[in-house]
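Run log, item B.
One chain of 148 residues. Sequence copied directly from the ordering sheet:
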Amino acid sequence: MVANLTKILSGQGYRIAAIKHAAHGYDVDIPGKDSWQLFNAGAQKVLLVGLESITTHERIERDLSLQSILDRLQADKKNIDLILVEGFKNEPGPKILVIRDQDAAFPDGDVDLIATVSEGPFKDDVPYYPYGQLELLAEFLLVKYLRV
């Protein structure tokens, strides 16, 4: 869903940053490539630079909070219109709940639920957007956060 929202919003000219929480780790490189060898040789940070992109692979000593990751993005704030986050469900901040089963339980705790993606209403005071109409959710986000 975040990829689809990113495609919709960036297609309208908005500059989107996306954060994906990989709770079980991830591979960012191909074993045997120079950048992989550098990181596995012990480099604290490897920057892989191409014609249209740059990737930073950095060692961390502990899991980072969502806020600390957002703080890292502050330097690029002038180049970013909206940040979309997938995961970090236990971190504070506005949430869009994707509901695949209408009998799903509401998340525990004090959740700032601003919308759901579902086949129908989940909670009376929370707007919902059907899976096939993410353009409506994109418009909701633009109005709510960019005052468009």
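Observations after the first pass:
- Residues 2-25+65-146 form a domain with the Rossmann fold fold (CATH 3.40.50.300).
- The mean pLDDT is 88.
Flagged for discussion on Thursday.
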